[in-house]
Design brief:
By secondary structure, this protein is of the alpha+beta class. 38% of the residues lie in helices and 28% in strands. A four-stranded antiparallel beta sheet has the order 2-3-1-4. It is elongated and about 60 Å long. The protein starts with 20 loop residues before the first helix and ends in a 5-residue tail after the last strand. The structure holds nickel (II) ion (NI).
Length: 145
């Protein structure tokens, strides 16, 4: 069974695959554009990306980073954002705060939990009044689950 691990101590196994010429040509352009040194590394990353997507869809444990920009002058916002992190079902591992200018702050919140918990936290934070922009980025835990 294929494990959802991003790092593997398994030996490298060579496989060959068949692709249409046009598709291979498009893939090679993509490989070059994204600065991969080899097709193999590009394929490995595509497989890993799909494993992360699958973990997300199956509501398994993932790590999410929630990046927000907000106006810290909005009343109670800073307090509310902290409360949301403490109350979340997801486990907030860390938060980075940057004072962008006199008014705006940037924060990167790193949280671990299942997909639903991470999505709930992200929605709650990004949707808060005074948050000007927010994005959730998800990755898998770097080990088998
Ligand atoms: Ni600040």
């Amino acid at each position: 069974m294929l494990k959802d691990n991003l790092t593997s101590s398994n030996k490298i196994v060579r496989v060959s695959l068949a692709l249409e010429k046009d598709l291979l040509s498009k893939f090679d352009k993509w490989v070059t554009k994204h600065k991969y040194k080899t097709r193999s590394e590009a394929i490995r990353d595509l497989v890993r990306a799909n494993l992360v997507k699958q973990a997300w869809q199956e509501n398994r444990s993932v790590v999410g980073t929630i990046t927000i920009v907000y106006d810290h002058h909005v009343r109670e916002l800073t307090k509310n954002l902290t409360k949301k992190q403490h109350d979340s079902q997801a486990h907030v591992l860390s938060a980075l705060h940057v004072h962008l200018d006199k008014q705006n702050c940037l924060e990167v919140i790193v949280a671990k939990g299942n997909s639903q918990q991470i999505q709930d936290l992200a929605d709650s934070i990004i949707g808060a009044k005074g948050v000007l922009h927010g994005e959730l980025c998800v990755t898998a835990l770097g080990k088998p689950q």
